[in-house]
Amino acid sequence: MWAFIKRHAWWIIPLLIFDFFLFRWLWNRPVDSSPVGAGERTALHPVAARPLPRPLGRLYGYPTDQQDLWDTESLEVYQPTASGRIESALYGSVRTRSSGGRLLPAFHMGIDIASLNRDRRNRPLDAIYAVTEGHVAYINAIAGNSNYGIYVVLVHDDPLGQIYTLYAHLARVQSGLSVGDAVARGEEIGVMGNTPTRIIPMARAHLHFEIGVINNQRFARWYRQTDRTPDHGNWHGHNLTGVDPLAVFGAGGNPVRFSLWDYLENLEPAYTLIIAANRQIDYFQRYPRLWRGEDYDGTAMVMTVSEGGVPLSGRTATAAEREQLGRETVVVQSVNEEVLGRNGLRHVVRRQGEWTWGRNGEYWWEIFSF
User: Fold this and answer.
1) Greater confidence, 21 or 244?
2) What is the C-alpha separation between 331 and 207, in angstroms, rounded?
3) Which residue among 23, 102, 136, 340 is least crowded, i.e. fewest CB within 10 A of its CB?
4) If we measure between CA atoms, which residue out of 168, 149, 182 comes closest to residue 109?
5) Which is nearest to 95 in space by CA: 337, 268, 310, 343?
6) Strand arrangement of the beta sheet that strand 271-276 belongs to
7) How far apart (Å, rounded) are the C-alpha atoms in residues 80 and 87?
């Protein structure tokens, strides 16, 4: 026997090793747990079905050469308003405005990134880049036509649907850039500036950057019917609602993958509304992942909304919630005061100790419901 093994060890030992690893691979191999059809053999050790992976977002970079955007206390990174308060350059209810003789909180829909390089006349030299691949949706080349000054809007595909990025207060747009052009991440689209000059002195030149959702594809028609000017089509600032841009930037200058769908799914609502509406609004038709439950029945909906006015979810109202609505068009069901904070948008306002729907909220809903 030993003589046989000695003579044939050259092939017996490799065969045993091969058999050992083959058995181990077969034993640990995942088994498909989908229903078994006719003629198929069942697995001895079926495993539970795993949920499908969520779609990955796009890879995002920075809109200027400034890559220290998480340093929110640096005047070298952010450009504050005339107040000099660094937080005024950040996203949220970080500003103050005068209204009817009162000072009220005001909301800033993006971030204001300071200049890194200037020429001898103190003009910024900073190039502005597309933060991810997309298409040019709009270019406003007339500085005085908007408080954004000269600005560019790009649109991008996201697991949520089509979203936008906005680059404002430019000195100029990149030569040859036109509406409809495809742009790559990191492609130069303009130069930092201080337009419109009537509200931004050269010393405070900066890039105002936004990322967010498009409220209503019918906005342009609504805006023209109300005889408002100037006309920027669907790319007017009132039809663009941003989230905190810092969500898309990785610390340490590393580009990150970002999905607005994932971000909104995890964002805590500032308030919840019950709204009478006889049809599904355009917003949830374009962002169907945010709708919960069965198709809308045309009676009333419940909508959760972020601090910045982004609808986070919608569903058909229950019978009890329709009773709460009564004859009103909009009722504030609940408010998370901690999330709402300084309430710079004032969509919901407190009257006689009760939260109610405000005038700014009425304008906001008019846009969404047209």
Assistant:
1) 244
2) 38
3) 102
4) 168
5) 343
6) 311-316, 300-305, 271-276, 330-335
7) 7
Name the segment(s) of the chain with CATH classification 2.70.70.10: 58-260
Q: Where are the beta strands (DSSP E) in 311-369?
A: 311-316, 330-335, 348-351, 354-357
- From the candidate CATH numbers 2.130.10.10, 2.70.70.10, 3.40.50.150, 3.40.50.2300, the one assigned to the domain spanning 58-260: 2.70.70.10
- Residue whose structure tokens are 């045993």: 16
**Host H or E run for residue 114:** strand 111-114
309-358 pLDDT, tens digit each: 999 999 999 999 999 999 999 999 999 999 999 999 999 999 999 999 99
DSSP state of 290: G
pLDDT tens-digit series, residues 220-278: 999 999 888 889 999 999 999 999 999 998 776 677 889 999 999 999 999 999 999 99
- Retrieve residue 289's tokens: 């992942």
C-alpha–C-alpha distance, residues 130 and 64, integer Å: 9
As a whole number of angstroms, the distance between CA 233 and CA 239 comes to: 9
Question: Could you give the C-alpha distances from 356 to 198, 280, 366, in angstroms and in order?
Answer: 36, 23, 17
How far is 73 from 68, CA to CA, in rounded Å? 11
Q: Report the candidate in 142, 232, 235 with the shortest Cα–Cα distance to residue 196.
A: 142
Separation CA 313–CA 284 (nearest Å): 9
Residue with tokens 């109610």, as numbered in its chain:
356
Helix (H, G, I), strand (E, B) or coil at 253: helix
Question: If DSSP codes are grouped into helix, strand and coil, which group holds residue 363?
Answer: helix
